[in-house]
Amino acid sequence: MFNTLSAMLFFMGVAWCSAEPAVPKKTDSIFATFELVQSLEADQQSEAVFTFDDPQRQHWMFLPGTRAGLPLRDMTTAQREKLQALLRTVLSARGMDDLEGIYAMEVALQDAAKRRGREDPTRDPDQYEFAMFGEAGDDPWAWHFEGHHLSLNFTHIDNDVSVTPLFIGVAPFELPDGPHRGMRVLGDESDAGFRLLGSLDEEQRARAIISDRVPGDVHTVPGREDRLATTEGIPLRDLDESQQAMAMDILREYVGILQGDLAAGELKRIEDAGIERIHFAWAGASTPGEGHYFRLHGPTFILEYDCIGGNPDHVHMVWHDPERNFGADPLEKHRQQHHAPVPATD
To answer: What mean pLDDT comes out for the span 65-73?
Structure first.
């Protein structure tokens, strides 16, 4: 069970406040961010607030350890509640539940290490940081919430919000005991992947399966976001309508951690680029309960799912939009429109 009061204070609130709120407007995130930052003391603000051009804005990681921002452990109960309010402007009820699950499993990892007499200082459930880049409501501005097995990055430019890179991971895959016994985070995505694989005929499977071995991690880790330059596997144009729908179910499961308008925008971008151009690739075991990997790769996105370990017991899932990671393309358009050089005059 949760072994710290602070753990309970931050995530027990999810149980009574994760009901689906109204579709958020741009001002919801601005207001919630402003409320959170204004609640911080001067020394806290120095940890949490950076300029938009600070290079740490484009630094992301999902390993244990410190990163840019103010950690949960240094926030008051009221400040944590304001952080939750901000998260609920971009995450759905299910997304908030996933955060609770990631946190609960981080606590479980810490408790397991203590039982083995090997306390690990990097297994700190309160080592999740909030950071803001720029000023809420300015164009542009950004913020992230990040820690072990979690990297949420939101870049606000004009009326646009970029949501990638977006990483969620979990270990163990399923909690074996405690108040959250049986909880699975990223389990629905795995089930959806197996459903699609199971629907393929022999020829389709031969094209979709790219390896019988599971990679040690997702390929597009920090610093290697462009590693998958070409598509592999079988294109959805060579699947029937029901199989294409199964592929879209995987996308909806993952993108569904976002609030309604953000999720709808991401899915529309994918659909506009052509569902038939998306490729489905698989590696590892073809039956549940063993290590497996799959990805969906289209013109505008890469979604990877990697389940490794003994039972298996360790999942990493990452979403990239290469043109829009950290707001790259919207930012370039913004600068061209608003900060173009003034032509010389005679």
So the answer is: 93
E strand spans, 34-179: 49-50, 70-71, 129-133, 141-147, 150-157, 160-162, 166-170
Query: Which secondary-structure segment (H or E) carries 265?
Result: helix 260-273
> For the whole prediction, is pTM greater than 0.85?
yes
Look at residues 128, 127, 135, 125 and name the one whose alpha carbon lies nearest to residue 105. 125
Mean pLDDT score of the chain, rounded to an integer? 86
For 32, other C-beta atoms within 10 Å of its C-beta total 22
- Comparing CA positions, the residue from 105, 256, 243 lying closest to residue 174 is 105
Residue-level pLDDT at 337: 62
- Please enumerate, as own/partner, the contacts of 137-145 that have beta carbons within 8 Å and a separation of 24 or more: 137/30, 137/34, 138/52, 139/334, 139/338, 140/52, 140/327, 140/330, 140/331, 140/334, 141/52, 142/52, 142/57, 142/326, 142/327, 143/33, 143/86, 144/57, 144/60, 144/68, 144/69, 145/69, 145/83, 145/87
Mean pLDDT, residues 145-152 taken together: 95
